[in-house]
Amino acid sequence: MDTKDAIAIILKAAEFSAHKHRDQRRKDEDASPYINHPIGLANVLTNEGEISDPVILAAALLHDTLEDTETTYEELRGQFGDEIADVVVEVTDTKWLSRDARKRLQISKASHSSTQARAVKIADKICNLRDILASPPAGWLLERKQGYFDWAKEVVDGVRGAHPELERRFDALYRQRPTG
Ligand code: ZN
Known about the structure:
Blueprint: H1 3-20, H2 36-47, H3 54-62, H4 65-68, H5 73-90, H6 99-110, H7 114-134, H8 142-157, H9 164-174
Helix pairs in contact: 1-3, 2-3, 2-7, 3-5, 3-7, 5-6, 7-8, 7-9, 8-9
């Protein structure tokens, strides 16, 4: 993919995601627009992880569309192609997917997409820990925050090895785990 095509697909993903999440808000006290979150992931990946792969950046922008909006896997494939759609599926809770889609997912997990999905997963956890530290969801007490930090660490521990810089940044955040 040349630079022009890369920019085009990334911006298309931003537009698509903004539209799909248009009626959703984050759980912080100010109820920030949901789209701030996927844009935050793409920003972390590029400016902190030094990642310029358009597949990863587009998948980051789209990473919650399957889970949290009416978007379908087929729609993502049609709009963004198999590679991006498969990374989004990899970072999505897949209980509800068709058997066909799950099979495709298993194939893609076994081959090339895992490294890309790992980057999105780590960036997701980096952004969520930062949000909890800076402006936690309304009503979250200490124990709930600690529980999220610990769960996020388990997820990141499961995908270590491919993105040392992102992992280092996650670990630095985890050391700020709230204690009271
Ligand atoms: Zn997310």
